[in-house]
């Protein structure tokens, strides 16, 4: 892996995958992505097996940097990534809405779920619930909270015993944490009682899923709130003490969005990668090897939207890919939500 500095941007991690054909002059697909490069390898490998004539340059960066870099490169008249893949749903939709993404009419476009497709420009490619994670040994003699009301009750009863051992995202630093909090506010009228109970229990805030999951796995934390399910599933598969609960009152589901930027250097390569991502083969690789639930209606199995929806039905609340996502990009509304979050936490 190479580390490269780009003027005006944060450090991006780069990985280069030569074309499998061995052609050193093969066209290069450039990907900007917030998915950690080691996790992305099976998808890149699958794409190159289907497209041996294409090399891949994979740039792993933060979600905000993906948006800002595409905008700045485009506005400067330069070429940018051929494919952008990010968990910041709001920022990806903003790129599309502001004219920084191309229309991609693909074989799966018409069959893709309506909530997951914004005008054939921005596609939701994953189906990832926000879950409770817990340290199994800590609940050997205590039922695990399975709803927000039960979580509040648990914190009120056990708050002193578990003080400082609850974790969640810092919504000021975590884009997905902010998204989940914004959806909580829409879905649950009493959400501030949850935040207040966490504040009283000395909740610890982090910008990454792994920081929370690491502490749940080794028992420093007893419970993590609103953690991205794909990362939770990966940790649970490797650490037997990590348990997962999909809250039964409602479970917010977010998605990583893929698009082809308007100023892509090789837009047809970007569309080939997006087509593979949406294909039965690509979605199966994602579900089985990346451990990220697939959206495609063509893919069945345990780790898919089809199966989760059959099991949980209306409990699941997917975040639609639409301009509604941009509401909390309004700086006044964003600042207001963060201010109340901090006020409620501090009051405890």
**Main β-sheet, spatial strand arrangement:** 1-2-4-3-5-14-7-6
Structural class: alpha/beta
Summarize the helix and strand pattern as letters: EEEHEHEHEEEHEHHEHEHEEEHHHEH
* N/C terminus separation: 45 Å
Residue runs with pLDDT of under 50 for 5 or more positions: 1-10
Q: For the residues shown, what is the average pLDDT? A: 92
Shape: globular
Computed CA radius of gyration, to the nearest angstrom: 20 Å
Number of helices: 12
Percent of sequence in beta strands: 15-25%
The helix fraction, in percent, is 25-40%
Number of strands: 15
Biggest β-sheet, characterized? 8 strands, mixed
Report on this structure.
The chain is α/β, with parallel strands linked by helices. The chain is built from twelve helices and 15 strands. The protein has helices at 37-50, 63-75, 89-97, 148-158, 175-187, 191-200, 209-217, 229-238, 267-278, 280-288, 305-312, 331-347, and strands at residues 2-4, 12-17, 28-33, 55-60, 83-86, 117-118, 122-124, 128-135, 166-169, 204-206, 223-228, 242-245, 251-254, 257-259, 316-318. The strands form two sheets. The protein has an eight-stranded mixed beta sheet, with helices on both faces. Strands 8, 9, 10, 11, 12, 13 and 15 form a seven-stranded mixed beta sheet that branches. A hairpin with a 7-residue loop joins strand 1 (2-4) and strand 2. The radius of gyration is 20 Å and the shape is globular.
